[in-house]
Amino acid sequence: MDSSVAGKLEVFMKKIKRNSLGQTEFHNAVQEVAEQIFPYIEDKPIYHKMRIMERLAEPDRVFMFRVCWEDDQGNIRVNRGYRVQNSNAIGPYKGGMRFHPSVNLSILKFLAFEQTFKNSLTGLPMGGAKGGSDFDPKGKSDREVMRFCQAFMSELFNYIGPNLDIPAGDIGVGAREIGYLFGQYKRLKREFTGALTGKALQYGGSHIRVEATGYGTVYFMEDMLKEKKDSLEGKTCVISGSGNVSQYACEKALQLGAKVVTTSDSAGFVHIPNGISRDELAYIKELKNVRRGRIAEFAKEFGYQFHKNKKPWGIPCDLAFPCATQNEISKKDAEMLVKYGCIGVSEGANMPATLEGVQVFQDAKIMFAPSKAANAGGVAVSGLEMSQNAARLTWKEEVLQKNLRTIMSDIHGKCMEYGVESNNYINYLKGANIGGFKKVADAMLAYGVV
Ligand code: NDP
Ligand code: 2IT
């Protein structure tokens, strides 16, 4: 990076940090994008003049609200709810909601910022948003989750709508939570519109939304491998997490002939030396989605070793799919992956590799697919759910399967368009950032100063 660009970047980041003290996750997300965008716009002064990056890094608005609900013992509980609407330059605000005790403004601002670029990459007309709460669904009864969701939506419904802002799931928000949230939205608004995605099929949901993120992440890897005349067949994969994204990344990897040797949750990981079988995956789905149990129970049931409080990155592999949460791959973890033979990483979770971790992958010149490209399949199918709701139609599963596959290839193509470096290394991070930025930035230019 030449010194004039580096100087501008430094001034920009200083201001961001001053205006969002202590919001480390948000700073890192902005830094990662700005490092690619500033050199790109150096000879395009209009983007600087119109302060496009500065505007994108300041959310349009943030809602924070109290959520008060009653637990099964009659105790009154208080949580905090949020919705960060980052940008609606290219379509209504769109993005998931996370229920997890770690949720704070920094995490949601980073996710809403990232979502803006991700949604642009899908080619569909969606802006970027994210929301959620520090509520922890773990250990709560269905009725407690229902009461929390109803209380949460009683405030949120004021700020969302099918042409305004369309939330969906994320960590801790799956089919059960979306059902309760949508039921309350419908009751308060007295209308049936597609103001949430990830709904069940019976009430306006789309085929393959459940599978889309995990499948898409593996499709992106398939496309990266294809570029090298290679495939997933016979590859050993490590996958983290055992939730929605992880389960379907595992399913698609198995379908494409790969071997998946790990699964995990926040308590530790399980090593399955000969690879997870389809029956074992079915067990994990039932354990996690129905019984809401812990992954240690899977290890116990099938006689595998459970590595308590450990992450799976030290297990030798060809490919890695981090599918749990942000910052789960540190510099050291990344070094371990490279050392033990990993040739490709596709991020199913949002920003699972730290800035230093990404640098290790890029220095080693291995394939690295950043989250905003690799996990965009979920929100893409959400976008298709919005289209179906608007038309009051349900498309057939085959149509959606085909659409998802095409969208992921198109995103891969967009990353190639902007990411191939002079030494022929494909910098997917650069490609995704510039590819996602351009459409949003050009729309903002068209609107003038707003
Ligand atoms: P789920 O809640 O279904 O699963 C999350 C998984 O990650 C669980 O196994 C959970 O373990 C683990 N996990 C969560 N937080 C932590 C933590 N702090 N440390 C270690 N493990 C953790 O969520 P999803 O599968 O939907 O989401 C996973 C990731 O994918 C997130 O980064 C999300 O933002 C991203 N994503 C999700 C999309 C979607 O469509 N759902 C779309 C695009 C991205 P435990 O049960 O112990 O908490
Ligand atoms: O991070 C994400 O892209 C999601 N959690 C999915 C968002 C959506 O609106 O489907």
Summary tags:
450 residues; alpha/beta; Rossmann fold; 3 domains; five-stranded mixed sheet; five-stranded parallel sheet; globular; binds NADPH dihydro-nicotinamide-adenine-dinucleotide phosphate; binds (2Z)-2-iminopentanedioic acid
Can you describe what's shown?
- This protein has 450 residues and is α/β, with parallel strands linked by helices.
- The protein folds into three domains: 3-56, no CATH class; 61-192, Leucine Dehydrogenase, chain A, domain 1 (Rossmann fold), CATH 3.40.50.10860; 210-369, NAD(P)-binding Rossmann-like Domain (Rossmann fold), CATH 3.40.50.
- Helix content is 50%, strand content 15%.
- It is built from 17 helices and 13 strands.
- The mean pLDDT is 98.
Helix content: 40-55%
Q: Helix/strand/pairing class, anyone?
A: alpha/beta
**Number of distinct beta strands:** 13
Question: Which radius of gyration do the C-alpha atoms yield?
Answer: 21 Å
Give the ordered list of helices and strands.
HHHHEEEHEHEHHEHEEEHHEEHEHEHHHH
- Range of strand content: 5-15%
CATH architecture of the largest domain: 3-Layer(aba) Sandwich
Question: Distance between the terminal alpha carbons, to the nearest Å?
Answer: 31 Å
The shape, in one word, is globular
CATH homology group of the largest domain = NAD(P)-binding Rossmann-like Domain
For this structure, the CATH topology of the largest domain is: Rossmann fold
Number of domains: 3
Poorly predicted runs of 5 or more residues: none
Q: Give me the side-by-side strand order of the main sheet.
A: 1-2-4-3-5
Count of DSSP H/I helices:
17
The largest sheet is: 5 strands, mixed
Bound molecules: NADPH dihydro-nicotinamide-adenine-dinucleotide phosphate, (2Z)-2-iminopentanedioic acid
Broad CATH class of the largest domain: Alpha Beta
Mean pLDDT: 98
